[in-house]
Amino acid sequence: MRELTQTEAIDLVGRYEAEQEIPERMRGDVRMLGSLLGQVLRESGSPGLFDDVERLRTATIQAYTDETPEAFARAAAIADSFTIERADEVARAFTVYFHLVNLAEEHQRVRVLRERDGRPDREHATDSLAAAFVRLAEEVGDDTALSRLQAMRFHPVFTAHPTEARRRAVSESIRRLATLLEQHDAALRNGADERRASRRMLEEVDTLWRTAPLRPEKPSPTDEVRAVMAVFDDTLFTAVPHVYRRVDDALQGPGAGGRAPVVRPFVRVGSWVGGDRDGNPFVTASVTRQAAEIAGDHVLLGLERTTNRIGRTLTLDAATTPPSADLVALWERLSAADADAALEIAKRSPDEPHRRILLLLGRRLAATRVRDDALGYRDPEDFLADLRVVQDSLVQAGAPRQAYGHLQQLLWQVETYGFHLTELEVRQHSAVHAKVLAELEAGGPRSEQADEVLDVFRSVAFLQERYGPRAAGRYIVSFTQSADDLANVHRLARHAADDGTPAPVLDVIPLFETFADLQAAPRILAEIVQDPDFAARLEATGRRLEVMLGYSDSSKDVGPVAANLALYEAQAAISAWAREERIELTLFHGRGGALGRGGGPANSAILAQPPHSVDGRFKLTEQGEVIFARYGDPAIAMRHIEQVAAAILLASSPSNEERNRAAAERYAGVAATMDQASRDRFFALVKAPGFAPWFARVTPMEELGQLALGSRPARRGLSVESLEDLRAIPWVFAWTQARINLAGWFGLGSALEAVGDEALLQAAYVEWPLFRTMIDNVAMSLAKADDRIARHYLELGDRDDLAGLVRDEMALTRSWVIRVTGGTELLGNKPVLQRAVKMRSPYVDALSLLQLRALRALRDAPEGAPADPEQQRLLLLSVSGVAAGLQNTG
Question: Residue 100 in 3-state DSSP?
Fold first, then answer.
C-alpha cells in the first residue's frame, strides 16, 4: 500500500477527527494543544521528528478506519523503520500528546460541571445528593431520609499500589497547564492578551516535552506519602467542605447559611500509604510514623491558615455582636496560657472579641504542629469545643450568617480530618503474624522480623496518643483464612505492650481475597466474634465491624465473571449474618482502578450491591492513577464525591433493594450457568501446561518490574513458572499493555453462550443491576482492546493453542456483549465513553507498535545475553504512553 500524500493525509486526519463528534470547545482545546506540541517538536525535537510523528499518526488512523491488513502492515513498517533514537522520540511525542488530550477532556468535564452546577433541572438522582435525598424521602419520609443522610459515610482509602505510570514532575506540569488553560479561556472571554496566554502554554508544553517521562528510580514509601499529600493540599482539604455546603444549600434553600446545617460531615479519608506492609519490605514501623507525621503536619498547617484567615475577617464589633459569657471565659483561659500574644492581639483588635479568639486559636494550632505541649491542643475534640464556643456566641449575638458561614466550613474540616488528615491503616499478611507469634511463644532471642512486627503496634499506640484515636487503629489482615488469623493480631499487640508501652486500640479487619476465602467468610466471622479480645472491641464500638473483600485476587483466582458473582454472594451472606448478630457492618471493597481489578464507575457498582450490604456506609480503595483522576481537580473531586454519596443514599432505598433482591432470585439460574461456564473457560487457559511462562513471554509482564512505579515489589517471591504469587496489579497491567485486557473479560463470552437465550440476557441487562454493571464494564474493557495488535503479542509465545483460545474468547465476548446491549458496536449506548475511546485508539496503536518492536527485539535476543538497554527504554517509554492513552494501568 502506497504512502499518502501530504494533502491526502491532512484530509484523512481531518475527516477522522470530524467523525468523533467532539464538543466544539473541547475540539478547539485539542487542536490548540496539539498545535503547540507540533511547534515544540519542530523547535526542540531532532530534525524531521515532527514529520515522522505525522507519518505514523496518519498511518495508524488509516489502519484504524479501513481495518485492512495492508494498512496495518504499513503502519507497523513505519514504526519498525525508525532508528532506536527516533523511536524513543516518537514514543515520547505520542505520550505527551495523550497527556494533553486527557487534559483537554478533563477541562471539558469541568466546564460541563460548572454549567450544570446549581441547575436542578440538569441533575439526575444518581448524580446529585440533593436529588437522591428527595427521591429517598418520597419512599421513606422526610424524617427517615434525613436521619439516613446524617448517618451516611463515604470512606475512600488511598493506597500506594504502583499503578500511576506518570512521574510526579509530569503530573505537576500537567496541573500547571490546566491552570493556564483556565487563564486562556478567561483571556478569550474577557478580551485579555490571548497571545500572552498562548505563549505561557507553549512554554509549559515545551517543559513537559523536555521532562524525562520515566522515574530514574522507584519512589520510597515516604515519597508516595508526599505525592498523595499534594491531592489534599490542592483539592480535598477545601473540596470536601464545599460538597457539604453545596448539599446543605440545596436542601435548605434560602435559609441555608443563616441557620444550623442539616448536613453532617459524611466523608472520612483513609490511607494505606506508609501503612501497607503486605509484601513491601520498605514499609517499616518508622515509615508508618513518618507517614502519619507528614499527614499531621499538612492538616495542622491547613487548619492554622484557615483559622487565621477567618479570624482576620471576623471584624465584628462588640457593640453590634456582644460576646457570650462562655466566649469571655474562653478568652480569659487562652490569655492566661499565652499572655504576650493575647496582649498584642487585644491591642490590634480591642473591641473584636470573636476575632481575638480565633487568632489565639490559630496560635494554639501552630503550637500543636511544632509539638509545644504547654500551649498546643491535646486532640481535635478540644479544638472543636473552642470553635463551637465561638459559633454559639455568634448565634446568641444575632450573627448566624457569620456562625454558619466560613466558620462552619472550618468545623466541617476538623470533623472530617481531625489532626491526622487520613486515618492510617496497617495491613499485613496473616502468614507473617503466624510466623512471628510462633517464634515469640517459643521463647529465645527475637528475629529482626519479630521486632519489626511488634514495633508496628507500638507505633500505632504512639500515633493514637499524638493525633487522637482516629489517626490509626484499623489493622487489616491479608489472606484471612481462619479466625486465628484475626485473633493473632490481638495476641501480638499484647506482646508489644510487654515493655510497658500502652497497647493500641485496634479494629482488626479481615480481608477475604481468594474464591475459597470468600465462601468461608461467614463461618470465619461467626467464629471470631466469640474470641474475647475481638468480642470486647466489638462491644466497645457499639457492635460495629468492618469486613474487607478483595476483588483482584479473586478475579485472578477464578476469572472476572465467577469472581463478581462470588463477591455478590459473599456480600449477601455476610450481610445476612451481620443482621442476625445485630452488627453494624461496613463492607470494605478492595477495588482497583482497572476493570480487571474491580474498577469502573463506583456509583453504578454501589447501586448493584445486595440488599442491606450498604446501609448508608461505603468504603473502598482508591489507587494509582485513579486518585489523581478522581480527586486531582476540585470540580471533578466534588462531583465524584457527590455522585458516590448519592448512590450510597439510594442503595438502601426500599425500591433499589427490592430490585436487586428480585433480580438475584429471578436470574439465579442464569448466574449459576454463567459461573460454571466462565470458570471452566478460565481454567482451560490459566491451568494449561506452560501457561505462566507463556503469559510472561506474550506480555511485558517481566519488564514492568523495571518501571519505577512504586516502592512495592511486583511479586511476593515466586518465579514466572507460577502465577500463585504474582500480584494482581502486574497481572492486569501486563494484559492491558498487550491490548488484550484479558483480566477484565475472559470467560464472559463462554458464560453468555452457555445461557444462549438472547432475549433472556437482554431482559437481564435491563432488570439485573449486577449483570448490567458487569456487561458495561466488559464493554469498556473490550473497547480498549484491539484484536489486530493482540494477535501480534500472542504470536510472541509460539503457542497457537493458547493464542487461539484467547482470540476466540475475545471475539465471542465482543459478539455477545453487543447483542446483549442491543447495539451494533461496543459502547453504542455510552456515547461519551465511546467517543473518548475512539478518539485515542489510533494514537494508542502507534505506541503499541513501538512497544511490539521493542518486545520482539528483547524476546529474540540470544538466551543468557544481557538485555539491550535501548530496547528496554523504548519498551518502558511505550508502557508509560499506553497507560496515558488508555487512562488505566493496573
Answer: helix
Domain residue spans of the chain: 1-122+168-211+830-890
Q: Give the integer Cα–Cα distance in Å for 86 and 88.
A: 5
Residue 535's contacts (CB-CB under 8 Å, 6 or more residues apart) are: 529
Average pLDDT over residues 53-75: 91
Radius of gyration of the chain (CA): 28
**Pairing of β 423-429 and β 472-478:** parallel
Is 589 an annotated catalytic residue?
no
**Residue 698: closest CA among 795, 808, 836, 783:** 795
Half-sphere exposure of 112 (CA within 13 A, CB side): 15
pLDDT at 553 over 60: yes
Q: Which pLDDT value is given to residue 226?
A: 87
User: Which amino acid is residue 142, in one-letter code?
Assistant: D
Burial of 120 (0-12, 13-18, 19+ CB in 10 A): exposed
In this prediction, residue 1 carries a pLDDT of 56
For the cut 70, the answer to whether the pLDDT of residue 725 exceeds it is: no
Per-residue model confidence (pLDDT) at position 656: 97
Closest CA to 645 of 267, 163, 355, 361: 267
E strand or H helix that includes residue 619: strand 617-623
For residue 885, the model assigns a pLDDT of: 84
The confidence score (pLDDT) of residue 890 equals: 40
Separation CA 426–CA 288 (nearest Å): 8
pLDDT reading at 727 higher than 90: no
Q: Is the pLDDT assigned to residue 372 strictly greater than 80?
A: yes
Query: Nearest CA to 884 among 80, 106, 85, 52?
Result: 106
Give the single-character DSSP code of 235: I
Contact 386, 359 (CB under 8 A): no
pLDDT in tens, 629-641: 889 889 999 999 9
25/36 Cα distance (integer angstroms): 17
In angstroms, rounded to a whole number, what is the distance separating the alpha carbons of residues 281 and 571?
Answer: 32
Cα angle vertex 108, ends 50, 21, to 5°?
A: 70
Distance, CA of 372 to CA of 200 (rounded, Å)? 44
556 is catalytic: yes
| Residue 157 pLDDT exceeds 90 | yes
Burial class (CB in 10 A: 0-12, 13-18, 19+), 17: middle
Q: What is the DSSP letter of 220?
A: P
What are the strands, taking DSSP E only, across 139-244?
Answer: 153-159
pLDDT score at 58: 93
Residue 826: band (very low, low, confident or very high) from pLDDT cuts 50, 70, 90: confident
In degrees to the nearest 10, what's the CA dihedral of 194, 200, 202, 205?
Answer: -130
Q: Are 770 and 561 in contact (CB under 8 A)?
A: no
What is the spatial distance between Cα 361 and Cα 358, in angstroms, rounded to a whole number?
A: 5
Instruction: Characterise 443 by phi-psi region: left (phi > 0), alpha (psi -120 to 50), beta (else).
Output: left
Q: Which of 99, 161, 420, 640 is catalytic?
A: 161
DSSP single-letter state for residue 513: -
H-assigned helices in 370-482: 380-396, 400-403, 406-417, 430-442, 448-467
Q: Give residue-wise pLDDT tens across range 648-680.
A: 999 999 999 999 999 999 999 999 999 999 999
Q: What is the pLDDT of residue 889?
A: 45
Pair 525, 583: CB distance under 8 Å: no
3-state DSSP percent of the chain in helix, strand and coil, to 5 = 70, 5, 25
Of these residues, 99, 298, 420, 556, which one is catalytic?
A: 556
> For position 886, what pLDDT does the model report?
82
The predicted-structure confidence for 304-349, as pLDDT tens digits, reads as follows 999 999 999 999 999 999 999 999 999 999 999 999 999 999 999 9
Distance of CA 795 to the CA centre of its chain: 34
Alpha-carbon torsion 707, 885, 168, 636, what sign? Answer: negative
Alpha helix locations (H) across 541-653? Answer: 552-558, 560-580, 602-607, 625-631, 634-651
